[in-house]
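wait is this the right file?? whatever heres the structure
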């Protein structure tokens, strides 16, 4: 190579290094010791996923882990008449489906809080209020799908039943059936290809109807041959013997069908995690671990876990409820010994938040739906998503450039491997997060989480390096 060619190449290289932005692989940035820490982190994460198949189970596991690390129920502090001091670790629960973990900071709460919010619900099938019926000598259970699913994913797939039944006397019966290898599983039958001519001519979204998602429940009949609906009656008798419930109790139940598969390593190199519910329990777990390690932050740190995100954040356990706002109000009361609404509103408006939710990684099998210049890449770190929404950014908060710059600085100073990402090409589709409901308080908020393959499927896939870097990112944010 002549001198002139070498100088030209060196100049190009310098411009690229000093002026350009290039994605980095997490694995290239971690020393060997930290790589091992990242792999160990994912083992604990898989255990969490297996223990938290539903929103109630996720909240129970979060509370259990928090109490192990010294978090105290906020109501206990109120009952004792104790004031909060910097460094206190407290939590509050709402209807077994929300929890807020709080570490009080050195600065006054009304100066603003650092909030990370994730959701613990996931797409699934819910049993209808009167689900059990018999057809052709087969007992079946009717379902109503929850959240955005591709219905064909749920056919011929082993399912487990989780949830609660509330009896007339108020007794709560917890059910978890299908996770142990000795348990029976549930399944929705599929149509054999030999008879699928008409079905195969339909659009993908129309080939399976919502009313066709009926669960096989049993075939053994009641011994009394003269009885009608002998299989249904036999199943009711079995439910009564096992759980002491009657058919009417099913009208006051929350029973969910979820994939019966366990969280597993994916790939020959075991570099990825495959599991149901990683949207958004990957962000729930990483933010949980971040606040469990949070000690004496400058600003009060809050990690919030909410329900109903997959159906619009509605209801009294979704982000649109007053749970978070009420928690901040009670927090102020315990700190000051009094309450003034203006300070509550200041605490919220001066806050900074990460809406902890997943992004979509460019999938080599489906590249056509992504803008490859602005899509997230698997293994390239946590994803900052300035806006979500669809059809012209509809239903997004669209983070201010100043706040994005602030988070960029925090991540760079703490050597967090990060990238930016959009959900897909413009007008291809879209989706929203809880960011828009956090922003209504006046709080700065940015979507931030790892990217997934196969989002909303029974087996979502995340990269172990991205999972670990997400935890590191949340930890760095809470320190401020």
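ok assuming it is, sequence goes like this
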């Amino acid at each position: 190579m002549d001198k002139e060619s070498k100088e030209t190449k060196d100049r190009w290289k310098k411009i690229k290094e000093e002026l350009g932005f290039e994605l980095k692989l997490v694995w290239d940035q971690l020393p060997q010791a930290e790589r091992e820490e990242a792999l160990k982190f994912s083992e604990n994460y898989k255990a969490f996923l297996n223990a938290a198949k539903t929103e109630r189970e996720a909240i129970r596991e979060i509370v259990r882990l928090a109490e192990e690390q010294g978090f105290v129920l906020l109501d206990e502090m109120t009952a004792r008449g104790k004031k909060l001091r910097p460094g206190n670790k407290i939590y509050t629960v709402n209807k077994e489906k929300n929890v807020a973990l709080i570490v009080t900071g050195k600065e006054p709460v009304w100066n603003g809080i650092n909030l990370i919010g994730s959701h613990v619900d996931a797409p699934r099938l819910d049993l209808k209020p009167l689900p059990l019926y018999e057809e052709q000598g087969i007992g079946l259970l009717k379902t109503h799908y929850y959240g955005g699913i591709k219905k064909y994913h749920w056919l011929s797939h082993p399912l487990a039943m989780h949830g609660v039944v509330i009896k007339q006397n108020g007794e709560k019966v917890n059910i978890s059936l299908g996770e142990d290898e000795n348990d029976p599983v549930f399944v929705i039958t599929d149509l054999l290809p030999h008879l699928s001519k008409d079905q195969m001519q339909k659009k993908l979204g129309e080939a399976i109807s919502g009313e066709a998602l009926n669960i096989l429940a049993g075939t053994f009949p009641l011994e009394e041959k003269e009885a009608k609906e002998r299989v249904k009656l036999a199943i009711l008798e079995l439910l009564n013997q096992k759980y002491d419930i009657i058919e009417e109790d099913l009208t006051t139940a929350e029973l969910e069908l979820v994939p019966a598969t366990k969280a597993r390593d994916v790939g020959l190199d075991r570099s990825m995690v495959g599991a149901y519910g990683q949207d958004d329990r990957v962000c729930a777990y990483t933010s949980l671990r971040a606040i469990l390690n949070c000690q004496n932050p400058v600003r009060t740190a809050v990690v919030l876990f909410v329900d109903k995100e997959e159906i619009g954040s509605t209801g009294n356990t979704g982000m649109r409820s007053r749970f978070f706002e009420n928690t901040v109000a009670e927090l102020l009361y315990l700190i000051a010994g009094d309450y003034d609404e203006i300070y509550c509103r200041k605490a919220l408006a001066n806050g900074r938040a990460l809406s902890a939710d997943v992004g979509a990684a460019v999938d080599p099998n489906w590249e056509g739906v992504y803008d490859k210049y602005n899509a997230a890449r698997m293994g390239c770190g946590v994803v900052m998503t300035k806006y979500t929404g669809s059809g012209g950014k509809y239903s997004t908060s669209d983070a201010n450039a100043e706040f994005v710059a602030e988070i960029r600085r925090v991540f760079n100073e703490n050597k967090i491997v990060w990238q930016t990402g959009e959900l897909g090409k413009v007008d291809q589709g879209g989706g929203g997060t809880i960011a828009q409901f956090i922003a209504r308080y006046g709080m700065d908020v940015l979507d931030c989480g790892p990217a997934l393959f196969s989002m909303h499927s029974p087996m979502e896939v995340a990269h172990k390096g991205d999972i670990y870097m997400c935890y590191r990112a949340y930890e760095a944010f809470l320190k401020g």
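Residues 388 and 396 are 5 Å apart (CA to CA). so i think its the right one actually
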